[in-house]
From TrEMBL:
Name under which the protein is recorded: VCBS repeat-containing protein
Source organism per UniProt: Rotaria sordida
Keyword hit for DNA repair: no
N-terminal signal peptide: 1-19
Pfam families to which the protein is assigned, alphabetical: FG-GAP, FG-GAP_3
Highest taxon of the lineage: Eukaryota
Entries under SUPFAM superfamilies matching the protein: Integrin alpha N-terminal domain (SSF69318)
Length: 367
């Protein structure tokens, strides 16, 4: 009845069908999407921080996935919350980079081709550092990606410049502020100088921090933007939301149950433009065109409400809420990712469900 009412009112509500759940390991926390076996279908890797493992789900080509393949990050106590993917050795195959909060190292899983990965090689980040989030970019302009890590326990970000295929120089650190407890970071060019900057969500400081790239993999001092008292920003994403060819910043704030949108003034200076309400305890955010209108939309995981939500980007700083979309009792979704899993030209949704140690796939059926 409700959907018929929406149709009578002329409202178009995105539909997601065929929720499929796949068992992972204890503490499923975060996920990333990539084509690991070069078969032109998107696969999924999920971190399981309680069991100290990662799970890889290979796509059958139709939006359905094979059962997990499991790799150890160091066992219980290793506590891998997040991860990222990149071709670190330029062999044409995507590798996995997993910051190990519990054991103070970054684990690198080299793709051996054909759908298998070598056991992790580790990069030490310092005793008691608590590495919790990583991203990669070409910071020193050689052909190999560099790594930047958020060290949650010591309030800094660490830069590891590549020296060759899978080889990195000693870590250089930059402060994110006393008590900042950086939780999530991304690398992107905010000031249009063709150098990737660091954008970091500081959970302890309740702010977003920006460190501009000065060239050669060196960064300037921190500039911060408040996300509100008690906001505890959990994740950050960067994308051009308003079509002005400048990258904007989105923060998901677990403490205040909202999303902050900062538009880019053009020189990398950010201005708070929108505050959007979410469900209870949002943790994960992803940005992609969900409704095929060529504008990036915002999807987010509400861990306290066992669902995910969607804000459709209507342009002119207008974001229309859709959903929520239920995942299941006690699912507690922490991570969310987007990709076209079944080759139908529409972006689908995947969630990492901490409560049920599972990954859920929601195929996009349009309107």
């Amino acid at each position: 009845m409700l959907r018929h009412l929406f149709l009578l009112l002329g409202l178009r509500i995105p539909r997601f069908v065929r929720q499929t759940n796949y068992q992972a390991n204890a503490g499923t926390y975060f996920l990333e999407v990539a084509d690991f076996n070069n078969d032109r279908s998107l696969d999924i890797v999920a971190s399981n921080n309680v069991s100290g493992t990662i799970s890889i789900f290979y796509n059958k080509g139709n939006g359905r996935f094979y059962s997990q393949k499991i790799y150890s990050t160091g066992g219980k106590g290793s506590d891998v919350d997040t991860l990222t993917v990149a071709d670190l050795n330029c062999d044409g195959y995507v590798d996995i980079i997993a910051p190990n909060y519990g054991l103070d190292y970054i684990g690198i899983f080299k793709n051996k081709r054909g759908g298998t990965f070598a056991p992790q090689v580790t990069l030490f980040t310092g005793a008691g550092s608590g590495p919790i989030s990583v991203d990669t970019a070409y910071l020193n302009k050689d052909r190999y990606p560099d790594i930047v890590v958020a060290n949650n326990k010591v309030d800094n970000i660490g830069v590891l410049l590549s020296k060759g295929p899978g080889i990195f120089d000693s870590m250089v650190t930059y402060s994110t502020g006393p008590g900042s407890a950086p939780r999530s970071l991304v690398l992107a060019d905010l000031n249009c100088d063709h150098k990737d900057d660091v954008i970091v969500a500081n959970r302890g400081g309740s702010n977003i921090g920006v460190l501009f790239n000065q060239g050669g993999g060196k960064f300037g001092s921190l500039t911060t933007y408040s996300t509100g008292a008690g906001s505890s920003p959990r994740a950050v994403a960067v994308v051009d939301l308003n079509g002005d060819d400048k990258l904007d910043v989105v923060s998901i704030n677990t403490g205040t149950n909202n999303i902050y949108i900062f538009f880019n003034s053009g020189d990398g200076t950010l201005r708070l433009t929108k505050i959007l309400s979410t469900g209870l305890a949002p943790r994960g955010v992803a940005i992609a065109n969900i409704n095929n209108d060529r504008k990036p939309d915002i999807v987010y995981a509400n861990s306290g409400d066992d669902n995910f939500g969607l804000y459709e980007n209507k342009g002119f700083s207008k974001f229309v809420p859709q959903g929520p979309y239920p995942i299941g009792y006690h699912s507690e979704p922490y991570g969310i990712a987007v990709g076209d899993f079944n080759h139908d030209g529409r972006n689908d949704i995947a969630t990492a469900n901490f409560g049920t140690a599972s990954v859920s796939i929601f195929l996009n059926a349009g309107y």
